[in-house]
Inverse folding.
């Protein structure tokens, strides 16, 4: 801010100084010309005032650069304004004027202005040889030599300033373009950085949601079974030792399965790509590890575990068997698993029906349970807390594959979960 103000003040004082010099040169030269022509005092004063006014136009040279050039062309016939002409044509080329003056800042227009200034200077010098060059003519200098010198002087005071102004103007415009481009690049880089930050934030949120969903599906089902079997073991440990031993064995099997699945998920977090040395995408690794162990073929085992926990599960498989993508197989398995877990939590001892139907290009599934008994112990009282994330996780899984999901109570008082997964890559 201070630098800009200092620059403006310096430019203002420079223009004032140049205007003073040009006004003195124009007024003095015009007055001398009028005096040599034998004009009266009033005419000499009027010409001098006109020259001072013409030279003062340099005060507005940056805003209206064409005005000093026009004033110089008007004073050249008075054999004055040469300093004004040099500064004017330089300013016209160095600055980018607006409006009508912009057309005179082009190279062709500048050439025409310089030619006009040269012609005026030569004509004035030629017409005034007798009055202004008397000493040279008296000493034997030829008139044509004086004309040639006039041409050279005219070229010297108009062409070099114009060329210098055009060069400075082109350089200034180039710097401005580079500065604007740099500012544009900075803005673009800042925007890209913001977008990258937003994408990274979204990726983190999606990954956290996916990990939370995976952990919920693994832990909720297995731990629910463990709690149910632990309760049964507590009740029969003294009455039926054989059944207690069977429940203990089931608890050990369930615990080992839960640990295996947790190791699979946690192992993904430690996976490192050999080339990039960065954590591998969690979804890609999970597809490779879990697809081999979890799918529609594992549903009978899942049903048996639920039956062992006290649910009356009826499993029905229909339709023409088709090979589905690993992600679809895993999603179908997780939906059935979470539905059975919810029944075990909220309606233990009820009858459950699991229906799997292969359809064209995918699979449809439904899990429904009957109305629970009125004296059923709430899930929280049995040590089975519910975070309310099960249905959300099932819906997210199904929608991620472009499927449809529905869940809600039935007219008979039970609950029903339905999902439909259609995959374009399913083959017969």
């Amino acid at each position: 801010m201070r630098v800009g103000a200092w620059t403006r003040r310096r430019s203002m004082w420079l223009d004032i100084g140049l205007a003073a010099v040009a006004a003195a040169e124009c007024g003095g030269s015009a007055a001398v010309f009028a005096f040599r022509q034998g004009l009266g005092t009033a005419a000499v004063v009027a010409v001098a005032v006109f020259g001072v006014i013409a030279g003062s136009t340099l005060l507005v040279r940056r805003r209206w650069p064409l005005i000093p050039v026009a004033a110089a062309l008007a004073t050249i016939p008075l054999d004055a304004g040469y300093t004004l002409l040099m500064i004017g044509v330089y300013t016209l080329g160095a600055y980018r004027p607006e409006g009508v003056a912009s057309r005179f800042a082009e190279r062709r227009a500048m050439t025409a202005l310089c030619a006009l200034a040269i012609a005026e200077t030569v004509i004035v010098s030629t017409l005034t040889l007798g009055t202004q060059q008397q000493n040279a003519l008296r000493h034997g200098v030829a008139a044509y030599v004086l004309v040639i010198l006039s041409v050279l002087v005219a070229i010297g005071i108009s062409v070099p300033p114009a060329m210098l102004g055009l060069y400075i103007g082109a350089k200034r415009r180039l710097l401005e373009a580079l500065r604007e481009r740099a500012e544009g690049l900075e803005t673009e880089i800042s925007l890209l950085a913001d977008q990258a930050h937003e994408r990274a934030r979204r990726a983190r949120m999606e990954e956290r949601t996916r990990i939370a969903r995976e952990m919920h599906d693994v832990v909720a089902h297995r731990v629910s079974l463990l709690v149910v079997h632990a309760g049964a073991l507590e009740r029969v440990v003294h009455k039926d030792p054989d059944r207690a031993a069977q429940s203990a064995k089931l608890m050990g099997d369930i615990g080992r399965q839960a640990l295996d699945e947790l190791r699979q998920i946690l192992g993904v977090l430690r996976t490192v790509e050999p080339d990039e040395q960065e954590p591998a995408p969690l979804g890609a690794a999970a597809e490779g590890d879990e697809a081999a162990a979890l799918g529609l073929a594992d549903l009978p085992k899942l049903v048996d575990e639920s039956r062992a926990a006290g649910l009356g599960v009826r499993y029905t498989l229909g339709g023409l068997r088709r090979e589905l993508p690993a992600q679809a197989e895993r999603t179908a398995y997780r939906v059935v698993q979470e539905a059975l877990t919810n029944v075990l939590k909220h309606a233990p001892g009820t009858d459950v029906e699991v229906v799997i139907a292969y359809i064209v290009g995918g699979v449809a599934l439904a899990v429904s349970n009957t109305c629970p008994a009125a004296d059923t112990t709430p899930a929280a009282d049995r040590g089975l807390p519910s975070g309310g994330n099960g249905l959300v996780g099932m819906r997210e899984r199904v929608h991620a594959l472009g499927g449809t999901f529905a869940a809600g109570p039935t007219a008979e008082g039970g609950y029903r979960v339905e999902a439909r997964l259609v995959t374009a890559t399913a083959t017969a």
Q: What stands out?
A: The CA atoms of residues 343 and 369 lie 7 Å apart. The radius of gyration is 48 Å. The first helix runs from residue 2 to 36. Residues 2-191 form one domain.
